[in-house]
Structures are given as structure tokens and as C-alpha cells.
């Protein structure tokens, strides 16, 4: 019998519907993997095996009654612990929210449950989604299941901030997981772990009930092990939500049905500014492979220019901290979460003590940067200027898309790095998102698909960026890459 | 522009994060490194550019004035609102006494 | 324009006072500005709080159309510029009544721009002439929650029922120069808001609160440093705040001190202001556009509906009462002072006109005089207001019609009104039951007149000798003999004829 935990979303959906196996036996198989890997990988903050089984049993019962199963019928998933889940601890990987049990369910998670998915647990992440290695979680590092092929045993980063999601996927702890992407937090972890993830157009997935990091950038998306699985799950997650003022009031296309790896008549843009000095050889080679694959799929390759690319990261590191400094002001120890009340403390002392104890160093760093750039006398020089440059970056993309349909680029400048390697140098850590951040600033759909392994045996990802609302174009180019990359590598089980 | 210990202390106070002097000392070079790096934006000529207001073209919808139109956005749920409070007292949130 | 001559007499000479007001007016709406929880006053603590109002993680704001509409209508009522493109900004600060850690407000692009209102001359109050007060802007923002300090020895209690209720902040120019002008401005603004229906103006429930900015200067000198006294909640308190704060500032300056720009609190029990310790922190609100919200763009149809739904406003109504209805300026001012008053008057007027089959302008004076001198007086005696009047305007119109048609006299009408208040019965029924109908039959009156003249032959002689003041005596005697029911006009005419 096949190992059920090797199956992806489409296979599970079809297998449950076809009676090849029950949703409950499948959920139990994943529950077992989750439990077995927890100590070694720390991918979950909490596991909820009973929730997975409960949803699976409901799906099996529906099938027994002959009712239609949802898009995600019988599929157990991991839920990034940034999504509020009713009465289930939701922490954003912060001490600040330890023990917090929301009395509400995020729109996206509710849609997934409505589509028949079940919850295996709440996935670890960088604290408040701030990080690129999952080393800022209060609940400990997530360890990538991947190891370098040099025989060494260095613990590697699963990427971040959706590091629990990417590690769990690569280790077959779940067939799919939710992610959120503010400046690359779906794509970079997918690239680091040989998995697939898409950040849709800003506004496709409701932000209601998702712990906010940077409101104008945050966007939820699916992570899985194939383009088709991402398409299916995105259909279940996306859709207009009247509770989110920035939600797009558009119908959700049937992305899965329209999937096609045929790129004939399509133009693929290669941004020259992404070919930076000192680009990692293996990354450069995988990019060239990707170009060849898309050509092979029938696409025409054109060179394009995104002249303000080098300003994307600094722009991001003004706007995201500025928004975060305000979004995180609500964590004050009054209504929920941690309260640190030293003897004799007044209200303002309580705030300062609570926030000192509740936030980790990276979160504090970003709050302070954000507070500074918004403060009197600096606002225009930093924040207004950043919003202007952001407009120029968006304009670069708009002009590029007059010449091409999608853009192909590396997802990250390197393969996974070792835990601890970049932790003392924030700037070096930030540079991980150099290729991911521009699409975030422009709100564009972008995905990462595995391209192959580097010389150390670690996965590399290729990024497809599309026009606003054109998730289909992104998924199709992703599929064309996937069909040719034939990526079948998986981490050898050591946990 | 660069920050000194006094500025970092002031920002931390504005952000209501208690920091020790040692932490401030450590933060000064760190924040200055980041600020110096983001300041390269100053070299971009933006004199003809409007700041971005909406990342994807979209218009602000206005909702109808209906009480508790959606249980998720309405009131009448005191228990849910107070469920996670560190100090819920007689239907209120309790905080250290404030002198106005 | 004649300027106010209000001055503080200091030891070093006269000081002028400069006043600007920021009025926070609660927008009349069923639900809050960014959530659908209710806004009603006086509910159980935290019972009208949504997850959004409590700033739970991941909660998002969606604006209420009605709140925007009411603010736009208010802007139109003060003839202000309406900005079709505006934005919400976050004002960041930490306080226990502010769950988000920021207030959603509008700094950079307010909904309503420059407008004005006119306060009327009031010699007695020291306002020598009508004066236009500039209004800089109106913006829409969230109210904060409420802290209670007296329920627990070491804790304050937070009630978030008000958190997220929509407010209009109406910011005046520093155009006022006396407590009387500021008082008149607040009263006029309140009147306009109540006409428009955008705010109920209940100052004692906190629906309207004023932040009072006061500075003093020697005439001709530039503005002095101002202080801001927060949350003053009555017209009288606004005036007291200014009086106290202006003399305090003069005292400080004349004794060589400096005015500190600060936030102060008014204490109604002492009529004085004091520095607010809790707001002493350096203000750096780090305003920036709220990234959870898009720019607010209004289309022409929306603005057109706002304009079309505006009622006749106080100034126009007053002018019409004088010009078209022929009322005195005083009566017009009294009757337009408040929404309930003019609504009552206009209903009474319409019914009185139709009951007497006359044009409204022909019965307006009668209705206005009666309403102000008789009806309000009678209500006052009972300690009642218009809203809880024991009789309806239909009933009042019937009474007026009886007078208008000569069925009863004005003095009998007073008596009837009293009975109406006591019993709630209709005027016609009372007149019928108590036999109060006025006697207009000349024959009957002539017979009584003859009796009176015969019985007072001596006085008739004196009258004819030139003591004409006795005419009133004969009228009185006749009316008395007729138990007050003689038509006074007919009595007069007959007496005149008989006495030659």
C-alpha cells in the first residue's frame, strides 16, 4: 500500500471521494507523522489531532450519505499560527499571545474548513511573521528536514516566516499548509524546502482574523507540494470578504480547471536588474534552466528592466516596520495576552513592561524602526519617500508587463543557510528577501516552484511573478516549470 | 540621520517598550546600520511622484448602518470580548488605577 | 463689523482673549464607525463591543456609510468645501481607553474643509453685531472607551461601549474673543447639528464635547501661547473655562511667568481648570494613512443625496418667519431655536390655517403669539417641555380656531387651555360642556349694556362730562355680568354707540 502521507491535495481529494481510503485513516497517518517529528523539527506550536480526525470523520460521513465533498474534502492541513482559530491557541509565535484563544475564526481558515479541510495543528513561524529563517519564534526554531549532502549535520533554516509550513510539507507532516507573505514569507520558505507556494494578488485572500504584520503587504496563500495542489487550495482560500476593506470584490476563478503548462504565445520577462553582482552560481544556473524550460514550453523570452529593484528592500524596511509599529500597539496587556505588572507599576509602566517581556528582539527592532520613521520630523523623509518609491516600483512592473505576460526570477539569492548563520546581522538576514520583496510591494501574484538541488543537495526555487489578478498565468508558468524540473527530491528521514 | 542613546530611549518610550541602558547601547549601532541602509532611498528623484495609496486599484466600500449586521463585526458578546482578559472584573477590563 | 470689547483688566493694562474650539460631536448612527455594534447610550458595560472595537488580533475596520453621509451633510450646512477624496489616518498613542493603540482619524485629508457659521448679535451678552466664525475643517474619527476610577481601590475599569462610535471633530478658527461669543458659537453649532440630524446635541450625555483653546494677548500683539482644556460639556462650562483660563493666564504673565502649551481639565465644582497629569507625555502621534483602509472617494450621486436631504437651516428659517410669516425678529428667534419648537410651531401653524380656512401667513402671528406667551407659559408652570406636552398640536389648533372664529375670547381660551392640560379633553368639548361659548348676539349684549348703564347713571354722567377713562369700567361691568362670555369687540362697539 502507498504511504498516504506522500499524497498531495488532489490525490487525497480524489482518493477520499473515490473510496480508495477514508479521510479518517489518512488524517491519522498525518497525525502520526506530526507527533513523530515534533521533537526534532518543532514545526508545530500545537498539534490538534482531534480536529483533523473530526473533520475527516465529517467528510467520510458526507461521502457515506452520498453528498458532494468540498474542494478540500478530506484534506488535513497545517494552519500557520498567524490565523485566528476559534478557541484554539493562536500566538503569532510570540510570548505576547501565549495562551490566547480567539473567540473567532479567520475568514481564510473558515473557508478551508467549509471546503472540507481539517486542522492538524498550528504551525510555527517567525514571531509576528517577522523573519526569514524561523529563528525569531518564541516557541523555538523550526529545523528544516533537509541536510546538506556534505555529510555534516548542520541544522538548516526552513526559511521564514512560514517556516513551520515549509518544514512540515517537506517532511510529509501535512499535504498542504497555509502561509502568509508580507515580503516573501511564502516563497522563500518554499524555495528553501523544495515545496511550492503562491502569494496571490493583494486582496484575493481576506486578512480578517489574520494577525497583522504590515497591512498593505500581508497576503495569505497556499503552500503545498505541487502547482495543482496550490491552485486547488487557493480556490478554497480566496474570495471577497466584506469584513476586509482591502478585499477584492472579484469572483474566484476555477484555477485548477484552467491549468495548462503550454506557454505558446506567452512572453516571459527576465529582469536584468535581478542578475546582481555575485549572484550564487547555482542560483544563476537554476534560473538559466528555468528560462530553457519555459522556452521549451513554447514561451518567448524577453529581457525586461525593473529599474528601481535595488530600492525595493530599503522601501520595504521602512513601510513594513512603520505599519507594524502601529499594528502591534494593540498588544498592551489590557484585553488579552500577556500582562506584566511590576509592583507599584502604573498603566504606562505596565505597557512598557508587558511589551518588553512579550516581544522578541526582532519584533522590538522593527517596532523601534517603525516608530522612528513615523516620528515627528522624519515622516516625510522616510515614510512618504518610501511610498513614492513604492509607486515607482509598481510602475516598473506595469511597464514591464507591457512587454511580457509573466516574469521569471530566482526566489531567493541562496539555498537554505544554517541556523544561527545570519542571526546576528539583521541586514544580511533582510537580504534574503531581495528577489521576493518587489512583487510584495506591488501587490502582484508570485509563486515559487522547486527548480532542482544545488551542489550541496539543497533545493532551489524559481519565482514566477504575474500581473495583478493573473494568478492563472502564474500557476500555468509554474506548472510548465514543474513539468520540466521533474523535482522529486525529498529530505532523507532523520527525525 | 543617525540615532544616539537618547533618541533610542525616546523611541522606545514612545513605543512603550521598556529597555535597559545596556539594551539601548546595543541597539544604537544596529538601528544606525539599518537607517543608513534605508536612507539610500533619498537618492531617488520622487519630485514628480505621488505616494502610493492603494497597492491594487480598489475603492473603499461603505457598509450599511445596521446594528450587529454580522455577528463577527457586531456587539452583544461581552463574554467573548472578555474571554482572554488578564483582569476581567464585573464586566470591565481592569487596569492599574489611572490618575487623570 | 463691530468687534467685541471683552477685555481682561490686568495690572499692566487690558488683555484680549483669543478662543478656538474643537467640538467633538457624536454622529447619530445606529452602529459604530467601523464595526456594526450598537451606539445606544447607557448600555451594560462592554455589551456593545465587537471584536473590532476591542482590537482583537486580525480585526479590520469597514466604514459606515451613514456616518460619512451625516458628516458631509453637516459640512454642507456650514457651507463648507466637501472633499470628494479624503483619507483616514492613524493617530498613535497608548491609553487604556484606546484598544487599538491608535485612533482612526483624519489629519492630512479631512472629509470637510473650510466653512463658517454666523452668531447673532446679542447686545446684552456683549455681542454687538452678527459675527461670522470660521470653521477650518470637519473630520470623522473614532471615539475612545471610558475609564471608571471609583469602583476599585487599586484599579480603573475600562468600558469599551463608546469605543469606535463615530465622532465629527469640528475645528473652529481662533475667531472668538469673548466667553459670550464662544457660548453663542457652541449654541449655534448645536442648533445646526440638531437641524441637520447629524448629532443629537445631548451635551450632558457627552454627545457633544468641547476642547477649548484659550490664549491672551495685549491688543495688537501676536497670538500668545494657548492651552487646551479638554472635554468641556456645556455651554456654561465653556464660558466658565474661558473666563477662568484667561484670567489665570493674565495672572501668570503679569507675575512674570510663561504660559505652557498643555492640556488642562475643567472642574465644574470649582469652575476652574487644572493641568492634566496623564496627558503630560510629549505628543508625537506618528500620524500615517491607515493601511487597512483605502482612500474615501465620494461620487456626485452621494453628494447630491446629501444636499437634497438637508432641511431648511436655522438662518433661512428665521428669515422666512420674519419675511413670509410676518413674525417679529424675537418670536422668529424663539420659534427657530430648537428642532422640537419649530416642528411644533409649523405643525400648529398648518393645522390652525386649515382649521380656519386661511393662509398660514394670516394666522402665523396668532399662532406664534399664543404659542410663546400662553402655551410655553402654561407648560413652564407644569414644569414640562414640548416633548412631553399634555396636549397635541391638533388639539392646540382646535383651541386657536375657536378663538380665531370668535367662538371664545382670548381670556376664556386661557381657562380652556388649563382644563385641557388637566383633562386632556379637546377644546370644543370643554367649551360646550362648560358653556364657555362667547356671546356675540348684539341683542343680548345690548340688553346687558342697558342694564349696566341704567344701574350706573352717575358714572354715565361723569363719562359724558369727559371722564373717558370710565369706559373700561363699563366694559368690565358688562363682561362680568356676562360671566366673561361677551364678545369683547361687540361689547366695545355697543358701549361706544350708547355712550355717544
From TrEMBL, chain A:
<dbReference type="InterPro" id="IPR023631">
    <property type="entry name" value="Amidase_dom"/>
</dbReference>
<feature type="active site" description="Charge relay system">
    <location>
        <position position="80"/>
    </location>
</feature>
<keyword id="KW-0436">Ligase</keyword>
<comment type="subunit">
    <text>Heterotrimer of A, B and C subunits.</text>
</comment>
<dbReference type="InterPro" id="IPR000120">
    <property type="entry name" value="Amidase"/>
</dbReference>
<comment type="function">
    <text>Allows the formation of correctly charged Gln-tRNA(Gln) through the transamidation of misacylated Glu-tRNA(Gln) in organisms which lack glutaminyl-tRNA synthetase. The reaction takes place in the presence of glutamine and ATP through an activated gamma-phospho-Glu-tRNA(Gln).</text>
</comment>
<dbReference type="InterPro" id="IPR036928">
    <property type="entry name" value="AS_sf"/>
</dbReference>
<dbReference type="Pfam" id="PF01425">
    <property type="entry name" value="Amidase"/>
</dbReference>
<feature type="domain" description="Amidase">
    <location>
        <begin position="25"/>
        <end position="475"/>
    </location>
</feature>
<dbReference type="InterPro" id="IPR020556">
    <property type="entry name" value="Amidase_CS"/>
</dbReference>
<protein>
    <recommendedName>
        <fullName>Glutamyl-tRNA(Gln) amidotransferase subunit A</fullName>
        <ecNumber>6.3.5.7</ecNumber>
    </recommendedName>
</protein>
<feature type="active site" description="Acyl-ester intermediate">
    <location>
        <position position="185"/>
    </location>
</feature>
<dbReference type="InterPro" id="IPR004412">
    <property type="entry name" value="GatA"/>
</dbReference>
<keyword id="KW-0067">ATP-binding</keyword>
<keyword id="KW-0648">Protein biosynthesis</keyword>
TrEMBL record, chain B:
<comment type="subunit">
    <text>Heterotrimer of A, B and C subunits.</text>
</comment>
<dbReference type="GO" id="GO:0006450">
    <property type="term" value="P:regulation of translational fidelity"/>
</dbReference>
<dbReference type="GO" id="GO:0005524">
    <property type="term" value="F:ATP binding"/>
</dbReference>
<dbReference type="InterPro" id="IPR003837">
    <property type="entry name" value="GatC"/>
</dbReference>
<keyword id="KW-0547">Nucleotide-binding</keyword>
<dbReference type="GO" id="GO:0050566">
    <property type="term" value="F:asparaginyl-tRNA synthase (glutamine-hydrolyzing) activity"/>
</dbReference>
<dbReference type="GO" id="GO:0006412">
    <property type="term" value="P:translation"/>
</dbReference>
<dbReference type="GO" id="GO:0050567">
    <property type="term" value="F:glutaminyl-tRNA synthase (glutamine-hydrolyzing) activity"/>
</dbReference>
<comment type="similarity">
    <text>Belongs to the GatC family.</text>
</comment>
<protein>
    <recommendedName>
        <fullName>Aspartyl/glutamyl-tRNA(Asn/Gln) amidotransferase subunit C</fullName>
        <ecNumber>6.3.5.-</ecNumber>
    </recommendedName>
</protein>
<dbReference type="InterPro" id="IPR036113">
    <property type="entry name" value="Asp/Glu-ADT_sf_sub_c"/>
</dbReference>
<dbReference type="Pfam" id="PF02686">
    <property type="entry name" value="GatC"/>
</dbReference>
<dbReference type="GO" id="GO:0070681">
    <property type="term" value="P:glutaminyl-tRNAGln biosynthesis via transamidation"/>
</dbReference>
<keyword id="KW-0067">ATP-binding</keyword>
<keyword id="KW-0436">Ligase</keyword>
TrEMBL record, chain C:
<dbReference type="Pfam" id="PF02934">
    <property type="entry name" value="GatB_N"/>
</dbReference>
<keyword id="KW-0436">Ligase</keyword>
<dbReference type="InterPro" id="IPR018027">
    <property type="entry name" value="Asn/Gln_amidotransferase"/>
</dbReference>
<comment type="subunit">
    <text>Heterotrimer of A, B and C subunits.</text>
</comment>
<dbReference type="InterPro" id="IPR042114">
    <property type="entry name" value="GatB_C_1"/>
</dbReference>
<protein>
    <recommendedName>
        <fullName>Aspartyl/glutamyl-tRNA(Asn/Gln) amidotransferase subunit B</fullName>
        <ecNumber>6.3.5.-</ecNumber>
    </recommendedName>
</protein>
<keyword id="KW-0648">Protein biosynthesis</keyword>
<dbReference type="Pfam" id="PF02637">
    <property type="entry name" value="GatB_Yqey"/>
</dbReference>
<comment type="function">
    <text>Allows the formation of correctly charged Asn-tRNA(Asn) or Gln-tRNA(Gln) through the transamidation of misacylated Asp-tRNA(Asn) or Glu-tRNA(Gln) in organisms which lack either or both of asparaginyl-tRNA or glutaminyl-tRNA synthetases. The reaction takes place in the presence of glutamine and ATP through an activated phospho-Asp-tRNA(Asn) or phospho-Glu-tRNA(Gln).</text>
</comment>
<dbReference type="InterPro" id="IPR003789">
    <property type="entry name" value="Asn/Gln_tRNA_amidoTrase-B-like"/>
</dbReference>
<keyword id="KW-0067">ATP-binding</keyword>
<comment type="similarity">
    <text>Belongs to the GatB/GatE family. GatB subfamily.</text>
</comment>
<dbReference type="InterPro" id="IPR014746">
    <property type="entry name" value="Gln_synth/guanido_kin_cat_dom"/>
</dbReference>
<dbReference type="InterPro" id="IPR004413">
    <property type="entry name" value="GatB"/>
</dbReference>
<dbReference type="InterPro" id="IPR006075">
    <property type="entry name" value="Asn/Gln-tRNA_Trfase_suB/E_cat"/>
</dbReference>
Amino acid at each position: 500500500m502507498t504511504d498516504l502521507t506522500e499524497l498531495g491535495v488532489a490525490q487525497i481529494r480524489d482518493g477520499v471521494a473515490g473510496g480508495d481510503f477514508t479521510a479518517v485513516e489518512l488524517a491519522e497517518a498525518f497525525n502520526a507523522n506530526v507527533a513523530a517529528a515534533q521533537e526534532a523539527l518543532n514545526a508545530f506550536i500545537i498539534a490538534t489531532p482531534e480536529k483533523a480526525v473530526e473533520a475527516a470523520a465529517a467528510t467520510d460521513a458526507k461521502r457515506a450519505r452520498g453528498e458532494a465533498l468540498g474542494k478540500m474534502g478530506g484534506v488535513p492541513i497545517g494552519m500557520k499560527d498567524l490565523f485566528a482559530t476559534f478557541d484554539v491557541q493562536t500566538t503569532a509565535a510570540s510570548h505576547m499571545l501565549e495562551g490566547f484563544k480567539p473567540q473567532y475564526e479567520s475568514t481564510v481558515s473558515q473557508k478551508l474548513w467549509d471546503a472540507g479541510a481539517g486542522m492538524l495543528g498550528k504551525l510555527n513561524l517567525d514571531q509576528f511573521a517577522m523573519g526569514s529563517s524561523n529563528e525569531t519564534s518564541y516557541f523555538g526554531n523550526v529545523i528544516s528536514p533537509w541536510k546538506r549532502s556534505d555529510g555534516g549535520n548542520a541544522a538548516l533554516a526552513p526559511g521564514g516566516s512560514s517556516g513551520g509550513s515549509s518544514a512540515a510539507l517537506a517532511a510529509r507532516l501535512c499535504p498542504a499548509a497555509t502561509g502568509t507573505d508580507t515580503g516573501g514569507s511564502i516563497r522563500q520558505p518554499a524555495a528553501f524546502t523544495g515545496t511550492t507556494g503562491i502569494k496571490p494578488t493583494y486582496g484575493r485572500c481576506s486578512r480578517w482574523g489574520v494577525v497583522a504584520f504590515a497591512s498593505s503587504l500581508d497576503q495569505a496563500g497556499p503552500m503545498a507540494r505541487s502547482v495543482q495542489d496550490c491552485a486547488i487550495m487557493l480556490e478554497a482560500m480566496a474570495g471577497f470578504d466584506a469584513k476586509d476593506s482591502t478585499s477584492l470584490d472579484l469572483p474566484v476563478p476555477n484555477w485548477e480547471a484552467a491549468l495548462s503548462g503550454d506557454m505558446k504565445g506567452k512572453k516571459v520577462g527576465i529582469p536584468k536588474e535581478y542578475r546582481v553582482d555575485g549572484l550564487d552560481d547555482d542560483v544563476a544556473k537554476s534560473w538559466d534552466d528555468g528560462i530553457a524550460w519555459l522556452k521549451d514550453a513554447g514561451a518567448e523570452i524577453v529581457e525586461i528592466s525593473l529599474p528601481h529593484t535595488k530600492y525595493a528592500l530599503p522601501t520595504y524596511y521602512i513601510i513594513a516596520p512603520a505599519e507594524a509599529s502601529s499594528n502591534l500597539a494593540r498588544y498592551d496587556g489590557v484585553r488579552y495576552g500577556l500582562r506584566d505588572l511590576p509592583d507599584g507599576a502604573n498603566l504606562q509602566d505596565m505597557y512598557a513592561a508587558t511589551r518588553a517581556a512579550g516581544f522578541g528582539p526582532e519584533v522590538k527592532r522593527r517596532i523601534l524602526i517603525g516608530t522612528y520613521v513615523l516620528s515627528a520630523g522624519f515622516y516625510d523623509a522616510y515614510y512618504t519617500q518610501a511610498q513614492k518609491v513604492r509607486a515607482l516600483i509598481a510602475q516598473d512592473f506595469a511597464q514591464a508587463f507591457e512587454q511580457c505576460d509573466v516574469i521569471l526570477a530566482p526566489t531567493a539569492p541562496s539555498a537554505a543557510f544554517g541556523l544561527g548563520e545570519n542571526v546576528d546581522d539583521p541586514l544580511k538576514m533582510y537580504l534574503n528577501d531581495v528577489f521576493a520583496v518587489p512583487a510584495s510591494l506591488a501587490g502582484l501574484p508570485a509563486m515559487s516552484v522547486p527548480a532542482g538541488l544545488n551542489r550541496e543537495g539543497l533545493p532551489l526555487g524559481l519565482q514566477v511573478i504575474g500581473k495583478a489578478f493573473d494568478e492563472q498565468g502564474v500557476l500555468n508558468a509554474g506548472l510548465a516549470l514543474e513539468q520540466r524540473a521533474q523535482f522529486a527530491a525529498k529530505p532523507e528521514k532523520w527525525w | 540621520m543617525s540615532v544616539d542613546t537618547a533618541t533610542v530611549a525616546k523611541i522606545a518610550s514612545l513605543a512603550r517598550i521598556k529597555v535597559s541602558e545596556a539594551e539601548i547601547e546595543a541597539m544604537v549601532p544596529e538601528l544606525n546600520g539599518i537607517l543608513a541602509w534605508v536612507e539610500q532611498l533619498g537618492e531617488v528623484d520622487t519630485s514628480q511622484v505621488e505616494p502610493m495609496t492603494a497597492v491594487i486599484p480598489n475603492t473603499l466600500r461603505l457598509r450599511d448602518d445596521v446594528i450587529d449586521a454580522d455577528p463577527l463585526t457586531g456587539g452583544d458578546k461581552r463574554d467573548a470580548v472578555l474571554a482572554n482578559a488578564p483582569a476581567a472584573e464585573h464586566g470591565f477590563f481592569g487596569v492599574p488605577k489611572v490618575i487623570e | 463689523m463691530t468687534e467685541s470689547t471683552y477685555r481682561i483688566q490686568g495690572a499692566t493694562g487690558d488683555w484680549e482673549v483669543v478662543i478656538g474650539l474643537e467640538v467633538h460631536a457624536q454622529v447619530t448612527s445606529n452602529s459604530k464607525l467601523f464595526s456594526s455594534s450598537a451606539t445606544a447610550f447607557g448600555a451594560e458595560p462592554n455589551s456593545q463591543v465587537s471584536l473590532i472595537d476591542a482590537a482583537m488580533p486580525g480585526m479590520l475596520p469597514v466604514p459606515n456609510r451613514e456616518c460619512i453621509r451625516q458628516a458631509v451633510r453637516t459640512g454642507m450646512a456650514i457651507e463648507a468645501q466637501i472633499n470628494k477624496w479624503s483619507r483616514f489616518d492613524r493617530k498613535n498613542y497608548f491609553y487604556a481607553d484606546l484598544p487599538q493603540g491608535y485612533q482612526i482619524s483624519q489629519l492630512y485629508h479631512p472629509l470637510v474643509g473650510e466653512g463658517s457659521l454666523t452668531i447673532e448679535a446679542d447686545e446684552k451678552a456683549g455681542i454687538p453685531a452678527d459675527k461670522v466664525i470660521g470653521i477650518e475643517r470637519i473630520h470623522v474619527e473614532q471615539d475612545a472607551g471610558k475609564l471608571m476610577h471609583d469602583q476599585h481601590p487599586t484599579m480603573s475599569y475600562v468600558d469599551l461601549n463608546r469605543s469606535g462610535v463615530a465622532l465629527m471633530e469640528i475645528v473652529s478658527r481662533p475667531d472668538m474673543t469673548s466667553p459670550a461669543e464662544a457660548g453663542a458659537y457652541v449654541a449655534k453649532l448645536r442648533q445646526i447639528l440638531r437641524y441637520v440630524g447629524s448629532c443629537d446635541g445631548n451635551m450632558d450625555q457627552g454627545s457633544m464635547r468641547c476642547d477649548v483653546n484659550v490664549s491672551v494677548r495685549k491688543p495688537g500683539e501676536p497670538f500668545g501661547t494657548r492651552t487646551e482644556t479638554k472635554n468641556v460639556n456645556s455651554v456654561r462650562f465653556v464660558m466658565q473655562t474661558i473666563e477662568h483660563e484667561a484670567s489665570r493666564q493674565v495672572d501668570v504673565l503679569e507675575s512674570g511667568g510663561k504660559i505652557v502649551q498643555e492640556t488642562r481639565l475643567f472642574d465644574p465644582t470649582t469652575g476652574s481648570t487644572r493641568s492634566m497629569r496623564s496627558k503630560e507625555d510629549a505628543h508625537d502621534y506618528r500620524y500615517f494613512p491607515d493601511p487597512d483602509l483605502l482612500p474615501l472617494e465620494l461620487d456626485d450621486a452621494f453628494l447630491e443625496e446629501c444636499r437634497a436631504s438637508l432641511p431648511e437651516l436655522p438662518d433661512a428659517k428665521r428669515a422666512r418667519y420674519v419675511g413670509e410669516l410676518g413674525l417679529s425678529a424675537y418670536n422668529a428667534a424663539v420659534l427657530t431655536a430648537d428642532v422640537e419648537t419649530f416642528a411644533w410651531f409649523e405643525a400648529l401653524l398648518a393645522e390652525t390655517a386649515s382649521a380656519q380656512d386661511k393662509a398660514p401667513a394670516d394666522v402665523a402671528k396668532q399662532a406664534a403669539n399664543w404659542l410663546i406667551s400662553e402655551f410655553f407659559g402654561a407648560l413652564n408652570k407644569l414644569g414640562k417641555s414640548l416633548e412631553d406636552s399634555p396636549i397635541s398640536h391638533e388639539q392646540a389648533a382646535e383651541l386657536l380656531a375657536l378663538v380665531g372664529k370668535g367662538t371664545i375670547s382670548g381670556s376664556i381660551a386661557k381657562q380652556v387651555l388649563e382644563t385641557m392640560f388637566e383633562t386632556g379633553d379637546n377644546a370644543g368639548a370643554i367649551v360646550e360642556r362648560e358653556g364657555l361659548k362667547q356671546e356675540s348676539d348684539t341683542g343680548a349684549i345690548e340688553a346687558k349694556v342697558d342694564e349696566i348703564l341704567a344701574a350706573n347713571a352717575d358714572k354715565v354722567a361723569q363719562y359724558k362730562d369727559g371722564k373717558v377713562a370710565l369706559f373700561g369700567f363699563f366694559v368690565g361691568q358688562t363682561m362680568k355680568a356676562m360671566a366673561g362670555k361677551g364678545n369683547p369687540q361687540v361689547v366695545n362697539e355697543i358701549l361706544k354707540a350708547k355712550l355717544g
